[in-house]
Amino acid sequence: MAKKIKLKELSEAVNKCDRCHKSKCCQYVTQNIDKPTTMKDFDLLLWQISHKNIHIFKDDDGWFLLVLSQCTHLQSDGRCGIYEVRPLICRDHSNDYCEYDVSIKDGSDLYFSGYDDLNTYCRKRFKSWDKRFQKKSWKKNAAPMV
Fold first, then answer.
1. Angle of helix 39-49 relative to helix 115-125, nearest 10 degrees?
2. Which of 37, 77, 83, 122 is the most buried (most CB within 10 A)?
3. Distance between CA 126 and CA 106 in Å, rounded?
4. Among residues 86, 27, 97, 85, which one has the least CA distance to residue 61?
5. In DSSP terms, which residues pair with 31 in a beta bridge?
6. Any bridge partners for residue 56, and if so which?
7. Domain regions of the chain by residue span
8. pTM of the complete model
9. Please, which residues bridge with residue 66 across strands?
């Protein structure tokens, strides 16, 4: 049986965008990534998170790169400058439960804001983390850094 939505709840969800003056959902981009399982996978994540404005998190929906970068169409009043022709992902975004309710960091199972956070996690997860460069398979299959 579907949950009945009270008029007050619907009104609050619709008005969240009006109360969210920082336009929290327009301040970043997320990209779903494959679940990292190997040291090589995590080493790649270390490289990615070494770049400015890149965070990584895991929640109920999987693993994600979080790119902190404001939408270029966001106006000074927090409104969308291309609202009528905005992309489908923006149209499909629901504010039923969004960053206004809980931040990505607080709503995640794992959250890494920088190299040190992720490196500490990797050292706990893999006993031989610091010896990963000694493996022959790494040296053979390693892609050149650009």
1. 170
2. 122
3. 25
4. 97
5. 65
6. 65, 112
7. 23-131
8. 0.78
9. 30, 55
Sign of the CA dihedral with 49 first, then 66, 36, and 125 last: positive
* Residue 38, token pair as written in the block: 């190997």
Q: What is the pLDDT along the chain (146 residues), one digit of tens a residue?
A: 455 545 455 445 457 888 887 888 999 999 999 999 999 999 999 999 999 999 999 999 999 999 999 999 999 888 899 999 999 999 998 888 888 899 999 999 999 999 999 999 999 999 999 998 886 555 545 555 44
Dihedrals φ, ψ of 29, to 5°?
-130, 140
Cβ proximity of 56 and 48 under 8 Å: yes
* Selection from 22, 25, 44 nearest residue 141 by Cα: 44
Given the DSSP bridges, would you call strands 110-112 and 62-68 parallel, antiparallel or unpaired? unpaired
Please state, in angstroms and rounded to a whole number, the distance separating the CA atoms of residues 106 and 53. Answer: 18
Going by their DSSP bridges, the two strands 28-33 and 62-68 should be labelled as antiparallel
The structure tokens 């000694």 sit at: 134
Instruction: Provide CB contacts within 8 A for 123, sequence distance 6+.
Output: 129, 130
47: its two tokens: 């490289």
Tokens matching residue 140: 């053979």
